[in-house]
Design goal:
alpha+beta, six-stranded mixed β-sheet, disordered N terminus, L-asparaginase, hydrolase, asparaginase activity
């Protein structure tokens, strides 16, 4: 693949990392302000999920902790049947099954994740259960689903009529050619800064449309789809997960900031590493 072609292909992932850096910028500057001036908390998320961001913001204003606010925010999109990239109504895999992935991380560095989960809508909340109620960081498939039922989650059929209709149309050709642009992404990542100056984040997705069965992208991977360090900031990524995973994008940005780079500089270096790794 030519360099120019690759840059175009990874444009969405690059934009996601840039947004991650923007999140860091907001969190970093506001955190300092909170510690001195007691200013308002902040919620920010990827893409145009304004209702999700509003829900998280209102939760923070009411005094809710950063992680709970982030989970509340992303739940708006998990429950949005018109969003075919997150939660219930998400596009299925090649077998016609909707599988969801998510992760969360709090200000102490505690984290939890779930992958390949069926029949559960609010998987970000389930990831928090993994973090708080198990000795593990990640649970997959039936194990995660069983944990959900034990903790009061209700089973739901995730494949909606519209998603099923789109899947049946796809079956006519069964072509797998993801179009990488701003309209076609597979994640909501959210970072929240609460009234105590603590940062936390959540990332949730149904993955790429018509993915191979069992495919997992960057979204539920701590360090790739999400990373938080309360002393430095946080980053969330969205886009072509395979490319972000190769550079551990969110972790990389936070660590570059730790070394003194600005959020913009850290982000640009992360994107450049993606390009460099794919030179042909």
């Amino acid at each position: 693949m030519k360099r120019r072609q690759f840059i175009k292909k990874t444009a969405q992932g690059s934009a996601a990392l840039t947004l991650g850096a923007t999140l860091l910028s907001c969190v970093e500057s506001t955190n300092k302000s909170i510690m001195t001036n007691k200013t308002a908390p902040v919620a920010i998320c990827t893409w145009g999920f304004t209702k999700a961001n509003q829900a998280a913001g209102e939760a923070l204003e009411s005094g809710m902790a950063a992680l709970d606010a982030a989970i509340k925010g992303v739940a708006v999109e998990e429950e949005n049947l018109k969003n075919t990239t997150v939660g219930k109504g998400g596009a299925p895999d090649r077998e016609g099954n909707v599988t969801l992935d998510a992760c969360v991380m709090n200000s102490n560095g505690d984290c939890g994740a779930v992958v390949c989960v069926e029949n559960i809508t609010n998987v970000a909340a389930l990831a928090k259960v993994v973090m708080e109620e198990t000795p593990h960081v990640m649970l997959a498939g039936k194990g995660a689903e069983e944990l959900a039922y034990k903790n009061g989650f209700q089973a739901e059929h995730l494949l909606t009529d519209s998603s099923e209709a789109a899947y049946r149309e796809w079956l006519k050709t069964s072509e797998y050619k993801p179009i990488i642009n701003i309209e076609n992404h597979d994640t909501i990542g959210m970072l929240c800064l609460d009234q105590h100056g603590d940062i936390a984040g959540a990332c949730t997705t149904s993955g790429l449309s018509y993915k191979m069965k069992g495919r997992v992208g960057d979204s539920p991977i701590i360090g790739s789809g999400l990373f938080v360090d309360n002393e430095i900031g946080g980053a969330a990524a969205t886009g072509m997960g395979e490319e972000i995973m190769k550079t551990v994008g969110s972790f990389l940005i936070v660590e570059l900031m730790r070394q003194g780079k600005t959020p913009q500089e850290a982000c640009e270096e992360a994107v450049q590493r993606i390009v460099t790794k794919n030179k042909t």
